[in-house]
Amino acid sequence: MFRSAPPNSIVVLKEDVQLFSLWFSQYILNHRKDVVVVGQGLSGSLWYQDMLRRQHPDACVGALKTEQDWLAMERLNPKRDLLVSTDAEIPGFSTIILHPHGLMAFVKEKKLDHSKFNVMNELYGYRGTYRYGAHREFFTPDLIEDYAKSRHRQGYYYMINKNYPLAQEEFLAALYLHDKFPVSAFHLGYTYFDSGDYKNAMKYYNIAADIYRYQVDLSRQYNSLEGVKRGILGDLAELYVNMGVTTEKLGDESKSLEYYTLAGEVSPGFTKSYFNKAVIYWRHEDWPNVIRELERAVSIDPNYAEARRYLEVARYKQSQKGGTNR
Prior knowledge:
With 326 residues, this protein is α/β, with parallel strands linked by helices. The chain is 58% helix and 7% strand. It has a domain at 1-113. It has helices spanning 16-27, 46-55, 67-76, 120-123, 139-160, 164-177, 182-194, 198-221, 226-249, 253-266, 271-283, 287-300, 305-320, and strands at residues 10-13, 36-39, 82-85, 97-101, 104-108. A five-stranded mixed sheet has the order 2-1-3-5-4, with helices on both faces. Helix 1 (16-27) links the parallel strand 1 (10-13) and strand 2 (36-39).
């Protein structure tokens, strides 16, 4: 973490293993005392803010729950870089950009020259077995997972900037570290899909699907919170839709219908699955099935304007064909 932190920076972490590792390094080993290590869960407490002020008088630390909180901390510390770890809880930023930097990420209002910031290969040496599932205790896997998340975050940054070769390297590195990390396989598949390599896209989509199904089984086994289960199923449904689109590109409409059906089964509220099925039926002028699927989508989301518009057209075409005008 400290190798990712520029001098006099503020770094925000949340989980115990990560925080206590850095606090031990600072307070026992006297390492990198210039860095302000902030525990996100404590940041809103007045006693904690007072303690940090005594240690770092020029640092302004406050609660870190909303985007405005993060924005305020970035603005109120103009002489210190603000960075965040992968274990912290970050809201969906709209005015703040995260720039990956090793095991951390810069929190900035403006875009930076990211070419300077991929330090994972330059600064981190790996000794021993860096595989999430290779250790029986919880401490080492927890830290290895941070490495996997950091590689993924680096890959995601490359992906959204259309640098797919570098994105693929990072996603593969993340999967090597943690082979039960489905989002890396999912995004890896997307980089191939957007490049027109549909066979490789399906290869990694299938890997992602296996991992998501494994997570679904675990969530049931351990009676996870319903919100957690819905989140995994929602991600799996989105993946199935992507697999359906990819198999359409490969010319296999029957397989596409299977994937769209699976998406609707695992997450019945995922309206895109019904709409995409309707598109396939539309090509074959199968108006009863078009109408059925679009009606499902509209019943779930009455504000789904595109589905409503095409539903009216489909009903008209069905009536012109001599069927029942519903």
